[in-house]
Design goal:
By secondary structure, this protein is of the alpha+beta class. It has 2 domains: 62 residues; 108 residues, 2-Layer Sandwich (Beta-Lactamase). The chain contains 4 helices and 7 strands, in the order H-H-E-E-E-E-H-E-E-E-H. Strand 5 and strand 6 form a beta hairpin. Helix 1 packs antiparallel against helix 4. The longest helix has 40 residues. The two termini are 13 Å apart.
């Protein structure tokens, strides 16, 4: 009798765990991919302006962004030989450069989204667009993932609490069913 009570509860626990993991994965991916949306638009618009012959100064924001402290979007322009031409994003007084391999991937794909962590305090959702053509420049638009990471942390807590509640209900039901089964068999 214990076996007939035990197996359905194990199956329910596995199912509840799977559903919680699915919810976490879907929502986390929604948060993370959504973090790229403004950068996609900014990088593509800037690339279009460069293709139309506008100067780099026409696409650069007026203010600089401290990449370790600000949540604002920053823009960088790289030359066809992967050299940093201009940047509105800085760390201290320096503009960091993205690794050359990232630019090569953008050259191959035309557009490439990557999480870029130039320092321990700066973690950015970045989108790089390759302009192609004779100049072949790269536009990188990025912004901090700080708020997205806070949402993901809250999501972990919510999903864990839901999973824990499910496990408690399943265990309580199993114990109650075992108790009632023993009582009726006695």
């Amino acid at each position: 009798m214990i076996r007939t009570i035990f197996f359905p509860h194990v199956a329910a626990a596995i199912l509840a765990t799977g559903i919680c993991l699915l919810v976490y994965s879907a929502v986390q991916q929604g948060y993370r991919t959504g973090a790229n949306d403004p950068q996609i638009q900014i990088a593509n618009d800037a690339a279009l302006k460069l293709k139309q012959g506008k100067p780099v100064t026409a696409i650069m924001p007026a203010d600089t962004v401290d990449m370790e402290q600000s949540l604002a979007t920053f823009v960088q322009v790289y030359s066809s030989n992967n050299g940093l031409v201009a940047s509105s994003g800085v760390i201290g007084n320096q503009a960091p450069s993205v690794p050359a391999g990232v630019l090569e991937k953008a050259r191959q794909e035309g557009e490439y989204a990557v999480t870029w962590k130039p320092t321990a305090l700066a973690r950015n959702a970045s989108v790089i667009v390759y302009t192609g053509g004779r100049q072949g420049q790269f536009i990188l638009a990025g912004r901090s993932l700080q708020e997205v990471e806070k949402r993901i942390s809250a999501l972990v807590t919510m999903v864990f609490m839901c999973w824990l509640l499910c496990m408690c209900v399943i265990c309580a039901h199993g114990l109650l069913q075992a108790y009632l089964s023993k009582k009726t068999n006695a």
